[in-house]
Amino acid sequence: xxxxxxxxxxxxxxxxxxxxxxxxxxVTRQAISRWESDITLPEIDKVKELSKLFNCTIDYLLDxxxxxxxxxxxxxxxxxNSNRITLSISSFRHISFEYTSKLKIGKLPFVHIYFGTKxxxxxxxxxxxxxxxxxxxxxxxxxxxxxxxxxxxxxSFAALSIGLFSLGAISIGLFSFGAIAIGILSxGAISIGxxxxxxxxxxNYLALGDTSLGLVAIGATNAKGVEYQFVSGVKNQLTGFDxxxxxxxLNEKVPSILKWVKEIALIILGA
Length: 271
Description:
The chain has seven helices and six strands. It has helices at 3-13, 18-25, 29-36, 44-54, 58-62, 243-253, 259-269; strands spanning 84-91, 94-100, 104-105, 108-109, 111-115, 121-231. Helix 2 (18-25) packs across helix 3 (29-36). The longest helix is centred in the N-terminal third of the chain and has 11 residues, at 3-13. It is rod-shaped. The relative contact order is 0.05.
């Protein structure tokens, strides 16, 4: 049995959490986690404190079997290229799992996985209940490419999604796709934006849908437009409107900063 395994066993037998043991020997909870995972060894004075605390000999703590000696790495920088995995069970109410790759880019690990309530997973690839990374997967997710229940990112996919390109049940973004979509260019059952496409479409400049409202409104059953409106009269059929008039109005009214979005909207419209 390794030193880390003995510390873990003695801590559990004494009904101590990692936080409680850390307070008793005056170190951080992370230090206890690293000791128990055999990532690092405690200093000799801490070994003495542990022996007194657990009423055992120093020899007992340090007497590892030969087969387990190679599992201990005192400075985490020897010729050990394995990744780090930490399993921490502080109590029945707090169970955490952590994986950190040794490969780093800058100060960030390439992969960081953490499931627990103490912190967020942070890495190039981050996975956890809370995650922040270039690629981020979590209940609460922040990243360049972000997946989660609540997700914020350049490309965002979630139940509630906020991003430049956003896809979700409720979606907010420059390009937004969802049951409820809010964005510069939005598509959804309920769609709100500068250019909107949906069953119920509300667009500042262009609205296209079953029911639509906007500067230019094109609807299958209902449409109310400030400058142009067209109702096909046939549900789910949106043909027959004057495309030249629509293009003329949009070319005149849409500001230059949104010209490129307008061109995309016209392509979707069929121009």
